[in-house]
Amino acid sequence: MKKLLLFAVAITSLVSCGKNDRGELVGSKGKRWYAEKPYGMALIPGGSFIMGKSDDDIAHTMNAPTRTVTVPSFYMDETEITNSEYRQFVEWVRDSVVRTKLADFAELNSMTEEEGGIGDYAYADQDTTDLNEYEKYMMNKAMMSDDYSGRRLNWDAELIWDREDYPDEYYTEIMVDSVYIPIEEAYNGQTTIKSDILKFRYSWMDIESAAKNKLKDKSRADFIKTEEVGIYPDTTVWVKDYEYAYNEPMHNEYFWHSAYDEYPVVGVTWKQAKAFCEWRFLYKNIFNTKNGIQRVNKFRLPTEAEWEYAARGGIESGTYPWGGPYTMNSTGCFMANFKPLRGDYAADQSLYTVEGDSFEANDFGLYNMAGNVAEWTNSTYDPQSYEYESTMSPNVIDSTNRKKVIRGGSWKDVAYMLQVSTRDWEYQDSARSYIGFRTVQDYMGTDVVYK
């Protein structure tokens, strides 16, 4: 009788925990998901298309034979990432680095917020009264290992950039000795931040290697990689890319002056573009977590197939994003920013780059998929890749091959490079005055109409 009573109590307990499911298999429910179109992005409905050179291969590269492939739905930036958008990334990293330096100094000297001055920038978890048990544990673990990377920065105290308003000698020491370039390196009364301190660190998991090795004789940690990337764009590309040319104004002003806010960022390597994607993912999810919103999936660079599919805008076998085969419209105006005539860069009304939303968007709502700046993709360049890669979400990733695919042509290229099927490449650690990028995000779900 006692055993029967215990069994009955157990059954009652299980039923009470079932949230009125009446003992049925109703599934475990997570937070309700609302598909949110990311700001500044267009939804590209997935489908199949003929990828490759359907017209003449004028350059005889023989690396883009036609084949039918299929890509799933995804979001894509309507424009290339602009200077102002990339500066948001640079300034966030800058502020993080400065706050970390200030917090480390305050920690080493046992300075607290009550003391004022640099103490205002002490780690936010120094006051444990508002910390939960998990946060206390992680703080103690970090302090015992002398590793402050897990500590919470204080983002409430405003950073002071005007040297006349520095709060104390310690703050001054950090800014003068650790943040800004030495006085002897400054000129024209301008002091700038040391670009080499602007590094962004992130971790990622090598899922392909993990899947192939099936974690045999290895732990999960063996496949987690940590990257630390210097993220300041190389502004000297405007000089290095062109010998015997006067491009100093572009070197001096292009990235920082507000006149160029809406122009595409250049001088960014493939690794820097990937770091930007990781930061955008982090930045969005910091906001979502604080506001109780479900996390979004990653931002990333597009695959080569995704880029070509998006550039075509749904036009089968078109030469350019607007169809083709001409680069002028019916009124005699060029339809993209490129080098239409020998040596005449300004024939299309622009010498260098143009604003990100210049010219007409294609039928997917994407601007400058031809010309302006060539764009990094996530794909490794192999001239034979079309022969062996999958026809479903095709992509080649080879960490031993430093050649990465760039697409779309640029302001300094001839029309052939603007064709949606033309393949090109650059080394992943190279920065150029004519290469930028845009990001994508996978669409979660399958309710987008496929063609």
TrEMBL record:
Q: Which GO terms describe its molecular function?
A: formylglycine-generating oxidase activity
Q: Which UniProt keywords apply?
A: Lipoprotein
For this protein, the record's Pfam families field holds:
FGE-sulfatase
Domain Sulfatase-modifying factor enzyme-like residues, every copy: 40-440
Q: Write down the Gene3D superfamilies for this protein, in alphabetical order.
A: paralog of FGE (formylglycine-generating enzyme)
Stored PANTHER family = FORMYLGLYCINE-GENERATING ENZYME (PTHR23150:SF19), SULFATASE MODIFYING FACTOR 1, 2 (PTHR23150)
- Tell me the protein's name: Gliding motility-associated lipoprotein GldK
